[in-house]
Amino acid sequence: MALTLHAADERMKVLLAVSKHGHCLNHLLHQWHAGELPVDVVGVVSNHEDLRRMVDWYGIPFHHLPMSEGKPAQEARILEAIAARDVKVVGATAHCVTGDLDEGPIIEQETQRVAHSASVETFVRIGKDIESVVLARAVRWHAEHRVMLNGLRTVVF
Question: Is the model's pTM score more than 0.85?
């Protein structure tokens, strides 16, 4: 077992990953800017340019990482951004399929904390584990007819 102690006032560095819809990003950035969210937002990564203007307004680095190079290349660039900003959380999301990549209603998501000293290989391994679990849950719930579409959202029973 390993134990790490942190000062109560130590703020976590956070790199936010977004797609096209900005409502959650706007909410997080507003809370952070107002001093209501005890984190240091060090940047935003997105596969679309849509939210660059919002991020620029807050004076935060925006990293456009399009899917045009293919998913493995994009994931490698995201991991480079994570490694350079000391991010301590990795996660995965399972969506309903739509015509737009990663734009469908969310069925399941999960994150896991990682040590600041984790290697890129560790991030990849943990990311793959989380993706596998999240996808298996989403498929199981769908097969059990527990996922109901409600407009652009899902309800899981």
Answer: no
